[in-house]
Amino acid sequence: MVATDKPTYKVVGTRPIRPDGTDKVTGRAEYGVDTRLEGMLYGAILRSPHAHARIKRLDTSKAEALPGVFAVATNADFPRVESGTMSIGEGTANPVWLVDNLLAGEKVLYHGHAIAAVAAIDQHTAEDACALIEVEYEVLPAVVDVREAMLDTAPILHDDLRTTVRARGVEPSANRPTNIALHLRLEKGDLEKGFAEADVVIEREFETAMFHQGYIEPQNGTAWWDRDGNITIWTSVQGTFNTRDQVAAVLKVDPSRIKVMPMEIGGGFGGKNPIYLEPVAAILSRKSKRPVKMWMPRDAVFLATGPTSATYCRIKIGAKRDGTFVAGHAYLAYEAGAYPGSPVGAGAQCAFAPYNIANQTVDGFDVVVNGPKTAAYRAPGAPASEYAVEATINELAEMLQIEPMDLRLKNASREGTLNSVGAPWPTIGAEAVMQAVKNHPHYNSELQGEDTGRGVALGFWFNGGMESSGTASVQADGRVSLILGTMDIGGSRASMAMMLAEDLGLTMDDINPHVVDTDNVGYNATTGGSRVTFQGGWVTRDLADQIKAQMSARAAAIWDVPADQVKYEDGAFVGPKERFSFKEMAGKLPGTGGLITVSATSKRNTQGPAFAGHIVDLKVDRETGKVQILRYTAIQDVGTAIHPSYVEGQIQGGAVQGIGMALNEEYVYDDQGHLRNASFLDYRMPVANDLPMIDVQMVEVPNPGHPFGVRGVGEVPIVPPQAAIRNALHDAIGINFYRTPVSPRVILDELLPKD
Amino acid sequence: MQALKYARAASVDEAVQMLRDGGPTAKVLAGGTDIIVLARERRRKVELFVDIKHIPETTGISYDSSNGLTIGAATPLYQIYGNSDVVRHYSALAQASHVIGGTAIQGRASLGGNLANSGPAGDSIPAQMALNGTALIAGPNGRREVPIVDFCTGPGQNVLGADEFIVSLHFPHPAAHSGSAWERFIPRNEMDIAVCNSATYLVLNGDVVTEARIALGAVGPKVFMVPTDALVGKPLTDETIAAAGEAAKATATPIDDMRGSVKQRKHLSDVLTQRTIRAAAERARG
């Protein structure tokens, strides 16, 4: 660990066992599908076999007549919602599209699009009933490729869609249907002038496949719409309030009438921000007057929940002979899936973020295709655009005969450098990370063996802020209950408890953290954007300050001294003559006005940007095209690591997901838009023995905008792997690849003689 | 999945009777690692599972140097690769058993199940064929033996008639100075389906190959035997090994699908054949 001017902490930076650990490893923790309620029914969903079709007739009468069936729901059961924009966690959506995605309206827009739902006495009966639903389709031509979807001749998904233009100097397109939902442009400096000044100009094109988050736990939701008109939902999602507000919007119910119970979550990575089953279960519950539980089989998870965008990226960079970047243009076309809303905006802002390029333009396009609506996936939008830039920079380094890390360091973004939207960077760790890569023993070790190669790449992610609330109650025995509303995906119960313990001078065991439902804690935005520990630290700081102030006042009253004469030091209230430990003082609270409960809300946006640099060594089997990762090092500016093990875990997990994208993961569609590999067998995520230990080096450049210097760590590690591996492949076998994943078949195709 | 019935057979005859009584939607259940998934996904209509793994004849391993090896059709894989006689004398089978699914699957899955599924990429089938195995089949008309090379007839198709099932698999004792090896290519390192798999059994007299049996999977509608003319009666050299690889490539009739291309699979047929020949020869030389 590279430490800078870091304060000395007692709890922060240690590695205690997580409070939720025992229940999780013993199988006692309750996940969404563990929900069992009296009289509960089971739901199933009928999905479209076609990628694009008009529903000419939908007849559910035979399903309704099947014994054991209590209710059937279709799009017609939703209230009519108004078009608009609402937050869905790490993105926005139009409620009209949300409803249409939950249960298809006039058309199905992708293979696996939900059409109708059944609630029955058991799962088998619900599935039997689905098979009895009659649907007559008028099958329409489908388009599943972003560039084909942008053509004037492409099949149109939404007759009412027009391109929103957020690009200076670009005329809005003609008033006719299109699949291009958005054209945005970021501009800085003078692009033409920049390229004119360049000694060398490189332009390369890249494609990335559609990737799924691949969480182990499928989507689920249980709903009970009671006789008083209130809805309770048990679900495992990233944001309970986020789910509540989306359900409220599509059902036109006041959010406060909905209570979302936070079940444990088995992975999300951004994919458990959107709603899929909860409102459908609620409608089935209203119709059947029973609680209804639904969950997705794995194929439905692949078919119908948000993967990330497949993309086409074209990168052009101009440089001086000495390596100085003078101009950069990025053309980014991102698939949104069936409804607008790809993360192209974030991809655009990330593309050139690690570098100081005075003249740059980024054009981004959000394009609908006949695939599932994309969702956030760990640094949404960043891996594709940064992969394209990092790969291009590698080729530029070769052209200029400059060592790749020297070229990057020469152009590194620094504090004060203007970013792609023209704002100056705050204190950032881009240069520190690049230097750490260059100095790392791995980078300086000798690469051994035939057909081996080494690659590096950088990554950037903003990190999010959003809103968090919490409540703390001091118990008479000296422990503190900490009530949270952010779902614990990556160990946040532990990190919140540690930050509160640090501020109160207590141990983590003295803090008792709970994640509670939406009726029992203040508003909390979703767990996403690497924001929870950042914003949570502000909340726990506020809670600690309030607790200390109130307890100091009680101590002052007991001692009959002015409040300002009581100090809180090392877990004790210290007066002019006496001192009470926190525990002693807690014991005196019931007799001095009662126990103390405090609440706090924070919505700061001083989160720190995060940079990462990855180094990979690999070996290619020329006979089979198979790639073995030999060594992998992930270096990252983490701000301050509250619980280093969880920070390392986040970095390793992100790297592994990126390695999967680089080598084998991919949605495979046939030319009619049918998904061919909706299973973990054929959607090839890495397994444990595909990987070496991912070595982590944390660079700690504390975020000045946080009480403990937290930046947020979870997302940026997924950004560098695709380019690092692609660059290493070039080093190993001398071939530049321009599409990910680079599977053994792709490598073999290049190595074997052409037909 | 649909609601279904389960019955445990205590004997081969009882299992045959249960299958007969159950009709076409009665299915044999051994480890269930394939059929339960198929039933759950409604890709097979199953109304009755007849569990055969509690019949003494269908489980367990017996070996002696004169009679060879007999493995109950429902014997879980971990017992096969964990058996020292199998590891010593039937290396290809031990290797194949060790990589099907993962550890959890290997506690349930069986060779009989893998063969009865008759998947073109079934990982144990090339090993069963290269080792010259025979399947003992029971049914309403009594028992019969079928060489494993003749067992599969197409993708998911085989010689099993109505209400028939595999009781056990028999492998002759390998010759002196013989060796066998198995290999597959998968994009990952485990938990994957073969793009191509291969098994070789060969016997050496000095440097000369006196017998060879090479089987290839995932590169045709069923696992098949590769002609060995290029190898048998000839010294084992880089040239003869390469020629055997060429023969494998020429015999393969793969399809293009998301798991592999024709070009890739043809090429891998050659590569894996050569690799298993070399590994088998190394074992033959002891």
Describe this structure in words.
Chain A is built from 20 helices and 30 strands. Chain A is an alpha+beta fold. In chain A, strands 3-7-1-15-12-13-14 form a 7-stranded mixed β-sheet, with helices on both faces. The two termini of chain A are 52 Å apart. In chain B, strand 12 (196-205) and strand 13 form a beta hairpin. Chain B starts with a strand and ends with a helix. Chain B has helices spanning 12-22, 35-40, 77-81, 84-89, 91-99, 103-106, 111-117, 125-130, 238-251, 262-284; strands at residues 5-8, 26-29, 48-51, 61-64, 68-72, 134-139, 142-147, 152-154, 157-158, 165-171, 178-185, 196-205, 208-217, 224-226. The longest helix of chain B has 23 residues, at 262-284. Chain B has a 5-stranded antiparallel β-sheet with strand order 4-5-10-6-7. In chain B, strands 11-12-13-14 form a 4-stranded antiparallel β-sheet. Chain B is built from 10 helices and 14 strands. By secondary structure, chain B is α+β, with helices and mostly antiparallel strands. Chain B folds into 3 domains: 5-51, Uridine Diphospho-n-acetylenolpyruvylglucosamine Reductase, domain 2; 61-171, Uridine Diphospho-n-acetylenolpyruvylglucosamine Reductase, domain 3; 178-284, CO dehydrogenase flavoprotein, C-terminal domain (Enolase-like, domain 1, 2-Layer Sandwich).
